[in-house]
């Protein structure tokens, strides 16, 4: 039966059902008054009823029940068996919401009011009250077969599923209160099936994946669909279908997998923002009832995204509302969360929803590269080893790239990742190169080794099989230890420029929070935001978190260790390079340091290195007088301090309207030493200063 034929059959069914209701109402109407009979002769007095005969008086507010002969039986055609999907809408509603025959007829009476304008007058006549032109429970009890008082119980379908609305003014008994049918239900009975307007304003439809999912994600979606369609352990007194918890940090993967699973189950997926869910208990209960009702009338599924839910403050109230919703409603439901929710009170299926594997991402990159196959495979492997993206993101990046070769795709991928991180940390534009570093050869070699590991991790981890041996994760972690200004930040810049990667500076002293759990939340946001791009994360002021452990004396000590371990775990699991920078290596706990792959020491530069720094510190455009580089190198400044002195000397020269000369540089050096609270030997300045120079 096609849709048009079903609509015709549904209309025929409703016409016949409403006609039967009209006939029943006619039978309820009191007989028309007739003129009083003529007086009978007194001799007929013995024919009157005895005084003891009971009076047949209807209940107040209830029409008298007609004799059985006046009750028109329900037409047999209204109860003809049919396949559930092909049955008239009222029959489907009765089956899905478990209505009794009497409850079905009450609903039909209320629906007839909407379909036939004459029903109101018939209701008034049937109740012998011109002011009661509407259905009442008393009318239904007298009118239909197998009446049941519990039909209006809050736990019975008519009220539990919000099928009818009871209007009971003060002083009016329940039996005389007016009944009206819910608009959504009357339209369903008429053949219009749509999401209830009260829910549609709170949820958004989620389109399923436009392209097939990668095999790893498709397998997860199929497993979910099977678990929902064949629940193993439904929890007593709770919705029978299990709740699906999608775990992991990537929202896009979770939504795509949920969309595919819903499609496999034949459901339309809708997403609910926790902020849109009302928080009052009564409002949550109403939403839950309506949603479960809709899930029985429509093939739909609910996706609740809690990834951005703050566990503190307003987030706690939202979480309580979501908990109640999950417990009180049924149907196909997905809970997107980073960590499992405990004590949900219903059957739960928990699955990890990860991004496509590196091999799957490599195939996606190869599909958008246009070089010859061998070159495309190599470039795809490079891209997949550095970026961690969904297939849709890869296609979007390719569409926005200025060309389909490695370089434009790489640049487009970096631009794609920047917005997520720019809000969380300070991005550094790397301008320094290897020649700008002035370090001992051993330290420079270590830095090149770090850059090499980042560049070749795809080959070693994937092609050479080391991924399976990395039980702690694939992260490359390092400690840069040395005094301020010795080149730690510059070294990170050099590596970022060498690898053409984004680099972000994070001040750990600002990340660490006095509130329990806040530090981990801040770090989680940072690492999750950096995963896509493989950006270099440069954690400055590591001393704020990695100080030597003392005896755990209270909860704050215990949580401090938890924070450190959390950071180390995330660094080890991070796909990119994470660098800790510290001015006080000796203050760091050795147990933590052992978990880092590299430790690079940044000593104060030697005189020869300081001379090279001085010679390179001024841009070519800077007007210079002849400077004595060897003499300048005798001052024990770090590279950062030399930069500050050179910059200050340039500003002094610009203000004086002359070139940068030795007196101005010496004045700038003197200021830098005083700022650092280092001793200033005026003899050194007199020896170096030309005649007439300021001492």
UniProtKB/TrEMBL annotation:
<dbReference type="Pfam" id="PF00004">
    <property type="entry name" value="AAA"/>
</dbReference>
<feature type="domain" description="AAA+ ATPase">
    <location>
        <begin position="474"/>
        <end position="608"/>
    </location>
</feature>
<keyword id="KW-0067">ATP-binding</keyword>
<dbReference type="Pfam" id="PF22977">
    <property type="entry name" value="WHD"/>
</dbReference>
<dbReference type="InterPro" id="IPR054472">
    <property type="entry name" value="WHD"/>
</dbReference>
<dbReference type="InterPro" id="IPR003593">
    <property type="entry name" value="AAA+_ATPase"/>
</dbReference>
<feature type="compositionally biased region" description="Low complexity">
    <location>
        <begin position="53"/>
        <end position="76"/>
    </location>
</feature>
<dbReference type="InterPro" id="IPR050221">
    <property type="entry name" value="26S_Proteasome_ATPase"/>
</dbReference>
<protein>
    <submittedName>
        <fullName>AAA family ATPase</fullName>
    </submittedName>
</protein>
<dbReference type="InterPro" id="IPR027417">
    <property type="entry name" value="P-loop_NTPase"/>
</dbReference>
<comment type="similarity">
    <text>Belongs to the AAA ATPase family.</text>
</comment>
<keyword id="KW-0547">Nucleotide-binding</keyword>
<dbReference type="InterPro" id="IPR003959">
    <property type="entry name" value="ATPase_AAA_core"/>
</dbReference>
<dbReference type="GO" id="GO:0016887">
    <property type="term" value="F:ATP hydrolysis activity"/>
</dbReference>
<feature type="region of interest" description="Disordered">
    <location>
        <begin position="26"/>
        <end position="82"/>
    </location>
</feature>
<dbReference type="GO" id="GO:0005524">
    <property type="term" value="F:ATP binding"/>
</dbReference>
